[in-house]
Write a structure and sequence with these properties.
The chain is built from 20 helices and no strands. It is an all-alpha fold. It folds into 2 domains: 321 residues, no CATH class; 43 residues.
């Protein structure tokens, strides 16, 4: 988030560096799809929301790279409401379930954690850009502006962010369905390996009930009134903040930003975005609904089929995404390891051998530097009048150089050369 703010504040510089903005837009779009695809296969409650945050930051960086900094800050502002709501709701649910975070072990919490379910539902709908909720007023504008900008980088960013709309919808509703709508009997009949021993033991007893093992063994309970007030405030912001603040942040003719943000006139495309086709404007909604339906299919109605697809047909893709595109492996083994190796070799060759052999007045470089240090240290007498004398001499030399420079600037350069030549001859 600080990076998005920094991009907006440096807009006067970025507007005159077109290649830099192209790189920013492309990196933001790649970040969006990178985090979104990783979130598809995460099973930790907080990890899903965290990768969602990274994906949404990609939206903000992308639109800043397309010279619409006000829209990026607006999405940052809106995102704060529903993402804070999601994270705090996650904390409430995890606390209620005795610190359990694996969503594969959740089931049927809708009847137990009613308030938390409502808060998570509102946050999810706002995150995926449901019409007339907070996320809709900034997320859809980002997509429309990316499409309206006639450049290769903008259209590349538009395609990636559109796909990210689908992934966001899928993992958000997958989280919602696995935690609150899935029945224990559905999970145990398809893949019992993802359940806790308590769940498998009591499955027959709770086969047709949505109240699950957590209510009997973990004493699951909803958030108390202190947390409830906070969730309620954030839920209201997740519903109304986008509609209320849109005219101020990105409204045509708004003077809210004054000189804080600079956009070159030929980069302003807010008006062009209003005349896009109806298909372009409704495409994000279509992708959102598609992601929700597929999440419902794979999480509730066809869990066994989804498990078979992930384990057999798309096992390598699943492994690639589950290992975060092997980003950590590449970073550790190719970048960090080689950097440490180069540093070790540099120290071994230079610091512990080669520098000792460099001739410096018959001494090695370390001994030469040490001799200079000793000689300079000898000049420090510790007497105040010595230091005062040095300061006066330095000030006089500085004033002399200043006057000499002014004389040079005042006289013609050729006259100055003639004077110096005469002095040398004399």
């Amino acid at each position: 988030t600080a990076g998005v703010f920094l991009l907006a504040r440096t807009s006067p510089l970025l507007e005159f560096a077109p290649y830099a903005t192209v790189i920013i837009a492309v990196i933001g779009a790649i970040t969006t799809i990178f985090a979104g695809t990783i979130g598809l296969v995460q099973n930790d409650f907080k990890s899903i929301i965290a990768y969602s945050t990274c994906s949404q930051l990609g939206y903000m960086v992308t639109i800043c790279g397309l010279s619409n900094y006000n829209v990026g800050i607006f999405h940052l502002f809106n995102h704060a409401f529903f993402k804070a709501l999601l994270f705090l709701t996650a904390g409430a649910v995890i606390h209620a379930l005795a610190n359990e975070q694996d969503v594969r072990k959740f089931a049927g919490l809708q009847q137990i954690l009613i308030f938390s379910y409502t808060a998570l539902l509102i946050g999810t709908l706002a995150l995926v850009g449901t019409p007339f909720l907070t996320g809709f007023y900034s997320k859809d504008v980002i997509l429309e502006l990316a499409y309206a900008r006639y450049s290769v980088a903008a259209h590349f960013s538009y395609l990636l962010t559109c796909f990210s709309v689908f992934t966001t919808s899928y993992y958000s509703f997958r989280l919602l369905f696995l935690c609150f709508h899935t029945n224990i009997s559905q999970l145990s009949e398809t893949n019992s390996s993802v359940l806790t021993p308590y769940t498998r033991k009591n499955n027959l007893e709770h086969k047709n009930k949505y109240t699950n093992i957590y209510k009997q063994n973990a004493k699951a309970h909803d958030a108390d009134w202190v947390m409830g007030i906070v969730l309620l405030i954030l839920a209201v912001g997740s519903i109304y903040a986008g509609w209320f603040f849109k005219p101020m942040f990105i409204g045509l003719g708004s003077d809210f930003w004054n000189n804080s943000i600079f956009i070159k006139p030929n980069n302003g495309i807010m008006i062009e975005a209003e005349f896009l086709s109806q298909f372009v404007k409704t495409l994000p909604l279509i992708l959102t609904i598609s992601g929700a339906l597929i999440a419902y299919l794979f999480s509730i109605t066809w869990v066994s089929g989804a498990y078979q697809i992930a384990s057999n047909h798309l096992s390598k893709v699943y492994l690639f995404l589950n290992q975060r595109w092997f980003y950590d492996k590449i970073l550790n083994e190719l970048v960090a390891y080689n950097a440490y190796k180069i540093g070790y070799d540099f120290v071994k060759i230079f610091d512990k051998g080669l520098l000792e052999l460099l001739p410096m007045f018959g001494l090695g470089l370390p001994k030469f530097l040490k001799s200079i240090y000793i000689k300079l240290g000898a000049t420090q007498s510790g007497l105040i009048y010595h230091y005062a004398t040095i300061m006066i001499i330095a000030a006089m030399c500085g004033l002399t150089m200043l006057c000499f420079t002014n004389i040079i600037l005042f006289l013609d350069f050729r006259i100055f050369v003639l004077m110096v030549t005469c002095l040398l001859i004399i």
